[in-house]
Amino acid sequence: MFSVRLIGPGRAGRAMAAALADAGCDVRGLLGRGEDVTGAAEGVDVLLLCTPDRALAEVAASVRPAAGTVVAHLSGASGLGVLAPHPRRASLHPLAPIPSAEVGRVRLRSGVTFAVAGDPVARELVALLGGRAVEVDDAERTAYHAAACVASNHLVALMGQVERIAASTGLGLDPFLGLARSALADVADLGPARALTGPAARRDEETLDRHRAVVGPEERPLYDAGVALARRLAGQAPAGPVVPDRGGAPGHRTGRPRVVRSASAFAAALDAARAEGRSVGLVPTMGALHAGHQALVARAAAECDVVAATVFVNPLQFDDPADLAAYHRDLPADLALAGEAGADLVFAPGVEEMYPGFPSPPATTVHVAGVTEVLEGRSRPGHFDGVATVVTKLFALAGRCRAYFGEKDFQQLAVVRRLAADLSLPVEVVGCPTVREPDGLALSSRNVRLGPEGRGAALALRGSLDAGLAALAAGERCPGAVRAAMEAVLESAPLVTPDYAEVVDAGTLRVPEVLAGEVRLLVAAVVEGVRLIDNDGTTVAAPAGGSGAGGDEPRQLVLTTREER
Ligand code: AMP
User: Fold this and answer.
1) From atom 14 of ligand 1, which residue's Cα is the shortest distance away?
2) In the chain, where does the domain assigned CATH 3.30.1300.10 lie?
3) Ligand 1 mean position to 434 CA, how many Å?
4) Known catalytic residues?
5) For burial by CB atoms within 10 Å, which of 18, 123, 260, 351 has the most?
6) What is the chain's pLDDT, residue by residue, as a tens digit (565 residues)?
């Protein structure tokens, strides 16, 4: 883990210091004006300069170079030259507004894109923060920064004008904010030229003149500048349909899924497919796709006319912020894998699109009682409420469909089946078998975080399930004894911290007094700081003669003797 010192306790510096500390860095202070910075580069891996751009060169020059320390800045506009005389230089600039240190602390760890340059340490810091690094070298720096300022500062300034012009209506900013969000979502889906609507795009001069008359002389030059921007864009609008027709017969795949960022465009695309009589398959994921996800997409493609995968790292279901920050994100790779498996559409919304106002929690969440209270639910408080809430939202947007989920997350599958049934959602939930590596390790998006030793140690989960299955095959019907066999494997494995090993009734997920009928073995353990889960199932006969078993109806017997733990 990195040791980091920062200079410049403004909003960005304080936000960065807190975010790095939250991400596990050893933050060794944040120096301000008037403090002696001569030795600031000594004894740390990274010295991060968070001062205003104009002060960067002077501050960098007043720090004595220290062998091995990377001196980096947070500036968007500056190249690496300002960091002379330091031999190891880097920069990382978050493409995220930081209106306050508190907002920045959370935002910097919510998967933002950073422009990086120089020493590879910049990329490592970005990965620690859970961000995405894009390389921007010195030659492109100013253009990059100008674009970033237009995207954030000018947009905010434009909303200031909206507020002033709307003042006389008494409506406040809120309704116009909703409008701006939808327009931005359209830009993400369609590109700026196709997303443009309104009188400037239509060349409706009469309406524009009426606007100019009411906005007043102080606002008019700025309003006219906006009209000029819109006219310029309208001149670029490409011909052709807004939503490309992918054409072909049902089941036709091109290998390049269409990407949709807005919830409304996602819902509209699936409505349109159904209106054409095509059936819809839905595969919800958190991205970092692997062959397990591809198996779900491929099954959906085999059974449905149109397949939509969703890629959304749902913050509500993470009880551990470090796990959320470390979650692997790579949309281009996901699109390639989803397309290869047969997805037609990928819905990849931003957090704001799914939860407007995030990190404030949504007012409405979904809680599924019963199946959530054991196993994962007990270890990860709130996890299944997050899962149930996002899945309900995705089902609401997707409409009538078949939805494919992996047995890898067996309890999640039970939760999703329950909520679809209880809320009468028009969704048929389909469970699919777990895809494994040849040596038995269940594929998981988290496996990439394991080192070679951890990867070997993680086999203990499969080993634990095998030990439980072997005990059942040998006739063991006492849950405690099967559990003990499973725990023994986890406990004896190096690098493995067991969470639980359990054998339960597959329908209720509760531990029965005596095992019979369909049973499920489930394990969870932490390996090298990565939480892994796995499970397997089997059907076993009730013990002969034991517990008054009648032999003919073992399943019924188990149901009447089970108890809640
Ligand atoms: P995730 O992206 O981890 O939320 O998973 C998305 C879907 O893929 C869920 O339905 C998972 O159960 C499923 N899934 C994850 N890993 C596997 C696997 N190894 N085999 C089959 N399905 C999986």
Assistant:
1) 406
2) 447-540
3) 8
4) 293
5) 260
6) 899 999 999 999 999 999 999 999 999 999 998 899 999 999 999 999 999 999 999 999 999 999 999 999 999 999 999 999 999 999 999 999 999 999 999 999 999 999 999 999 999 999 999 999 999 988 888 999 999 999 999 999 999 999 999 999 999 999 999 999 999 988 888 889 888 999 988 888 889 989 988 998 899 999 999 999 998 888 865 543 333 333 433 344 556 799 999 999 899 999 999 999 999 999 999 999 999 999 999 999 999 999 999 999 999 999 888 889 889 999 989 999 999 999 999 999 999 899 998 989 999 999 999 999 999 999 999 999 999 999 999 999 999 999 999 999 999 999 999 999 999 999 999 999 999 999 999 999 999 999 999 999 999 999 999 999 999 999 999 999 999 999 999 999 999 999 999 999 999 999 999 999 999 999 999 999 999 999 999 999 988 765 433 333 333 333 323 333 3
DSSP string, 279-291: -EEEEEE-S---H
* Ligand 1 binding pocket includes 405 (Cβ within 6 Å): yes
5, 90, 91, 92: which is closest to 43 by C-alpha?
5
d(C-alpha 126, C-alpha 116), whole Å: 9
pTM of the model: 0.62
For residue 130, give the amino acid letter.
Answer: G
Q: What is the CATH number of domain 258-432?
A: 3.40.50.620
Tokens of 19: 């975010």
Domain spanning 3-144, CATH class? alpha beta
Q: CA 435, CA 437: separation in Å to the nearest integer?
A: 7
Cis before 512? omega within 30 = no
Residue 531 Cβ inside 6 Å of ligand 1? The answer reads: no
The answer, yes or no, to whether any atom of ligand 1 lies below 6 A from the CB of 534, is: no
CATH 3.40.50.720 placement within the chain: 3-144
Q: Specify burial of residue 10 (Cβ count, 10 A radius: 0-12, 13-18, 19+).
A: middle
480 phi and psi angles, rounded to 5 deg: -60, -40
CA of 19 to the centre of ligand 1 (A): 29
How far away, in angstroms, is 192 Cα from ligand 1 center?
A: 35
409 lines ligand 1 (CB under 6 A): yes
